[in-house]
Every structure is written in C-alpha cells, then in structure tokens.
C-alpha cells in the first residue's frame, strides 16, 4: 500500500517556502533582475558589521560595533549627528542613505578568517547586506575583502594594518581608511632618530602572520634609513603567551633596541615580560635599552599597565586630538557610552559614513558607482585632517600619530599621549612601492 | 653558556606551570578516572581570583578635581583607593601591590569550592560513562566557565603586576661566577619556580605522610578493596578533586604577573598539559611533574635562534614531536604504569 503524504495545506506551504527561498537575495548565482548584488528595493538598506564579538579581540570588536551603531543613528537623523556636522561633504542629511532608513546586521568574526568569511557570506546572502565593515585583524580583512570582491559588495575595512591589505591583496571592491605598517615606520622614523640617535642596533620580535611580516619589513626600512643596524629578526607564534624564550636571547645579542611587532594580547605579554626581564634598566653600547611598539591600540595598551610608560608607537587616530571632527565624535560616543572611543571604533565609524556619503554622491548603491565615488575622494573633518582615498590602491592618506606611553596618566583613558602628528606628506608612498607590489585592484564587481 | 643557562631557567619556569596543571589533572584522573578537560579553566579561574583581590584592594571613592577636566570637558573624577585614604598614598599603593600573593588566601577556599561543585554537580554523573563523554562534557564546562568570566571581566588582558619588592630582575649570572649584566632574570619567575616546588612537595607529602593520603593512594591502587574495608573512598576522592582544583588555581594566581589574565588563558594551557600528562604516564604523579619540567625545558631550547636557524618552526611543534618519540619508545609514557587506560 502506498501512503500519500500530500495535502492541500502542505503543498501550499511548500510552494510558499520555495517561492520565498527563490526570492531571497543570492550571491554567486543570479536569480533576479537586479542590476547588482542586494540592490535595496524597499524603504531600508542593510549594512553588515562583521566584528569580533568573542575571542581575544572581543573588546575591540565590541567598541567597533558601538561606533557602527552610532554611525547608523547619525545617518538616520538620531542623536547629535557626530561627525556629520564636521564632515566636509554635506550630502548626508540624516534621512538614511538616499532616503532609505539604515538597518544593520552583525557577524562575529572571532578573529578567524574562515569564520569571518562565513559570517560575511551569511550577511550578504541571507540578510541582504550591501556593504561589509569592521574587523580587527589583517588576516581576516584580507579574507573578507576577497569574499566581498567575489560577492559583488563593498568592503570598508576596519582595523587592518598590514601593507598587503592595500598592497598585494588589494581589491577593487575593498577600501581601507586605517593606516598601514609602512606609514607607522615612516612616522616613527624621525621621532626615533630624535629620541635615540642614529647609532642603534635593533632586535625584532615579530608575529608570524601577514601583519607582522609587513610591519617588520616597514620598521627595518625606516630604522635602517636612520643608520640603525638590524641585529636579528625572530618570528614568534601568534598567541605564544610566554615570550621569555624569545626575550632571553635579546639580552646578549648586542642590541640596544627591541622592536615588538606584536599586536593585541601578544603585545601585552611580550612588552610586559620584556620589562620584567629588566631590558629597560640595561645599558648596552653606552645607550639605555629601549623598546618600541610600532602599532598601539588604547584597549590593549591598558592591558600592559605600567609597562608602556615611555614606549613609542603609532596610531591611526586618538580621541585626544584637538580638531573639530574628533571632538564631535568623542562627545557623541562618550555621552552615549561613558568612555572615549578607541582608534578601531573611529575607523569603523568613519568608514560607515564614507560609504553612505559615496552612495549618496553616486546616486546609487551599485558597488561600481560607489567605487567610482570613493576613488580619489578628498575629504576633511573626520579627525585626521585633509584625507585622500587614493584611486590606485584604495588606501586613505592622512596624518599619522606618533604616541608614547604616558608617564603619569590621570584616568584609565589617557595612558597614551600624542608625541607628534606626522603630516600626510611624510607617510605618502608611490602606488608601485616595492612593499606594496604584486597586487592588482582588478575590475569592480557589482555581482548578480 | 649564558644563553643555555637562560633557556634552562625559562624551561624550569614554563615547566613549573605545566607541572602544576598536569599534577592536578593526574590527581583527578588517578583518583576518579575522569579525563577533565575543564582543568585549564580552573587555572584561569585561579588567575581571576588574583584579579578579584586586586579589584577589592583597589576599591575607591570618587573625588572631584575641579582643576582638571575629563574627555568630555567635565570636572575630572579621580578614583582614590580606600587603602590610600586610610594609610597614605605610598603605603596604600604598596599594600595594593601585594594583591597577587594575598589572592592565594582567597583562591584556596574558592577553588576547592569550585572543584567540589564541579565534581558533585556534574562530573560524578559521568564516572561510568566512556572517556569520550567525559571529555565532551568537561570541555563544554570549560567553555561555559570562560564565558562566565568574560561576562564579568571582559575579553582584554588585565594587568596584575607582582609586588613592588619582587618586580624587576636580578643579576643571576654573578651568583654563578659570570660577569655582571650577563644573566638577568625576573625575580618573580624565581618566586614562581620556588612556589611550584613548594606546592608539588606539599601534595606529595600530603599523599605520602598523612593517613588521608595513604587511603587515597590505596584507593587509587584498588578502589574496590578500600571500599570493602568500610572506607567511604568517594568522599575522599571528591576532596581530592577539590585539592586538584586548588593546585590548578594556585598555579593560575601566581602566574598572573607573568601572563596578564584573560578569559581564554586556560585553553592555551590545556592541550599542552594533556600532552604533559600523557608523556609523563597516565595516572603517574611523579611522571606528570617530571614531564612538565622536561617539556618546558625542551620547548625553551627549541626557541633558541641557533636551533630555529637549522629547524625553522621547530619551537611550535617540539612538544608534540617529543611526545611522539616518547610514546613510540615508551607507550605508557615516562613513568606510566601497566593497566592504566589499557582496557
């Protein structure tokens, strides 16, 4: 006997589900008449915020998310408007993006490339995100940038500092507001020369992944240009925890400077342990032994406690800047959350506004129109002075901050102090600079 | 020569942490037969006992400093610890700087309680289940525990410095006849090494020289016979779980000046500690300690530039390589006994 499971209700349900599924936005396979991936057709537009919400960089990711939510509020005309009031472009009027109310979905990258790609893909495929923004790692940024290029959406990178993001791995659909390793080296060089002279011997401990490699290369170039000698470069595993085995050989290497090309928890541990080993109390070659941390983050600097006092590093942006844009964003963020924003929060906020502005100026959400609007775009009022989104590599060029661990911080938020605002001219480089060679933006991909 | 001595010191230091965690793991496995994948989480909770004590000692009241402003331009609110108000800034800060050693006093009862709750509340229900089930449930428990800690303390590392008097480094080379400035080593790492020897010695003495320890050892050798003598061995084993948890917790407390506590630090140690236990021999307490120190030293030497120049990346795999070699030549581990996990 054959059992028939068909019922009228069941068939209707199945049909509805199938029709709904076909109507869902898809990537890689075109199934609608849309001109580009996830073209917003209703009264809203969805942005995808892909940040680490768990894992070692969760606090940084959550700070990015706070800033992204703030940006959405400002775009939708809520709150005090923040940097919309200081942004040199005036096309954003608080009515969303091109009249569409901005909504957002979030993904948890866990700072893992495969997870970040999966969450980005889910936001594009299932939630209809038209732009992906955020992240706290260059490895993740490069992976997600590649995915967005394939999917035909815009990627507005968050915290990614590897030269490769806008070098050998650059993509036409990807844009980076954050600075990079080369810029850190170029900004730090003159300050280090003034502070420590021209006859130094440097020892590098470097995180063994794309960011560490390019940061080390950049710092070697910058310091050797000063006349410093590179004694040794040592790669360390990410998340090593105890760096004592790597720090001990520094002591009798003849080096008088230790450059820690580490970020996040690795930076906290390697710096703290280097100080515990008494490196900064030593005299080598007639010089005081010094430590340099090329890339600083406020959140991680707090983890290092007193170990960062007097240690030089660099940042993309800091809330202590005195310009109008910084003041507006810091006030907005501080009043909402009770503490000042981090550098990673700032870059995500700015990227979100820049995307919205580019769409509005282009008059379209089409990624290729947005690319055209962003390439070569010059703006001001976002906290770093006059800024250029260079067309050749989609890298933002703006002033860079040289920082130092504060000797006497008065609050938990001012453990770093600004030593110098390095003008953009000093950190510029040619698009075909050898450290950025080997990549090709390729063609813009609108998807669908 | 100085480089070799430095790496031996580093190895002993790393080995101290491995040995303490592995000792606790082996105690639990030897007594209860449970493969406890939540043991790394106990190390982490111990570390956060230190953070808690530090925060308690830093409890503050707010004073308004009208002469300065905060990031929003409002008068600056300055947090002044009560200890500073009561004893003056210098003595107050000096007292606060001793929060890590003082945390031992909190960690012992807290960790024993946590261990007791874990054992009675969850793990006892898995004694008769396969080891795979035990691993899954304890691994899940570890994730739950670390997420609870993350909710309360955040994801960032929290600085927990050593006491002022024990910070910095000593010129150890001078004691060995080297010239001044050749071998500097952090004071706190010496403290950690000596502390671990004290704890390891204490555990062995407890098992060796007390009636309670004798019963536990008898129970580890033949649980049924001890039970037939009318001794409630389960109760003693539960207490041993608490002691093992306390050992892991104390290892975590004292490690905080070396590694700023973060909620996932236990996971970083867990896998390595299991390798240590397996290399030492399942169920063997002396094996766990010996293997901990041995692997710590081997790992340190593998990190030397001279070694990595010949074998790039060896520092990241050396522990597993040594484990493979030892298990191939001595399948029961260094001091493993016949019959343990060999059904």
Automatic annotation (TrEMBL), chain A:
<comment type="similarity">
    <text>Belongs to the leucine-binding protein family.</text>
</comment>
<keyword id="KW-0813">Transport</keyword>
<keyword id="KW-0732">Signal</keyword>
<feature type="domain" description="Leucine-binding protein">
    <location>
        <begin position="44"/>
        <end position="404"/>
    </location>
</feature>
<dbReference type="GO" id="GO:0006865">
    <property type="term" value="P:amino acid transport"/>
</dbReference>
<feature type="signal peptide">
    <location>
        <begin position="1"/>
        <end position="33"/>
    </location>
</feature>
<dbReference type="InterPro" id="IPR028082">
    <property type="entry name" value="Peripla_BP_I"/>
</dbReference>
<keyword id="KW-0029">Amino-acid transport</keyword>
<protein>
    <submittedName>
        <fullName>ABC transporter substrate-binding protein</fullName>
    </submittedName>
</protein>
<dbReference type="InterPro" id="IPR028081">
    <property type="entry name" value="Leu-bd"/>
</dbReference>
<dbReference type="InterPro" id="IPR051010">
    <property type="entry name" value="BCAA_transport"/>
</dbReference>
<dbReference type="InterPro" id="IPR006311">
    <property type="entry name" value="TAT_signal"/>
</dbReference>
<dbReference type="Pfam" id="PF13458">
    <property type="entry name" value="Peripla_BP_6"/>
</dbReference>
From TrEMBL, chain B:
<keyword id="KW-0029">Amino-acid transport</keyword>
<dbReference type="GO" id="GO:0005886">
    <property type="term" value="C:plasma membrane"/>
</dbReference>
<feature type="transmembrane region" description="Helical">
    <location>
        <begin position="237"/>
        <end position="258"/>
    </location>
</feature>
<dbReference type="Pfam" id="PF02653">
    <property type="entry name" value="BPD_transp_2"/>
</dbReference>
<dbReference type="InterPro" id="IPR001851">
    <property type="entry name" value="ABC_transp_permease"/>
</dbReference>
<feature type="transmembrane region" description="Helical">
    <location>
        <begin position="20"/>
        <end position="53"/>
    </location>
</feature>
<feature type="transmembrane region" description="Helical">
    <location>
        <begin position="309"/>
        <end position="328"/>
    </location>
</feature>
<keyword id="KW-0813">Transport</keyword>
<dbReference type="GO" id="GO:0006865">
    <property type="term" value="P:amino acid transport"/>
</dbReference>
<keyword id="KW-0472">Membrane</keyword>
<keyword id="KW-1133">Transmembrane helix</keyword>
<feature type="transmembrane region" description="Helical">
    <location>
        <begin position="270"/>
        <end position="297"/>
    </location>
</feature>
<dbReference type="InterPro" id="IPR052157">
    <property type="entry name" value="BCAA_transport_permease"/>
</dbReference>
<keyword id="KW-1003">Cell membrane</keyword>
<keyword id="KW-0812">Transmembrane</keyword>
<protein>
    <submittedName>
        <fullName>Branched-chain amino acid ABC transporter permease</fullName>
    </submittedName>
</protein>
<feature type="transmembrane region" description="Helical">
    <location>
        <begin position="95"/>
        <end position="114"/>
    </location>
</feature>
<feature type="transmembrane region" description="Helical">
    <location>
        <begin position="190"/>
        <end position="216"/>
    </location>
</feature>
<comment type="similarity">
    <text>Belongs to the binding-protein-dependent transport system permease family. LivHM subfamily.</text>
</comment>
<dbReference type="GO" id="GO:0022857">
    <property type="term" value="F:transmembrane transporter activity"/>
</dbReference>
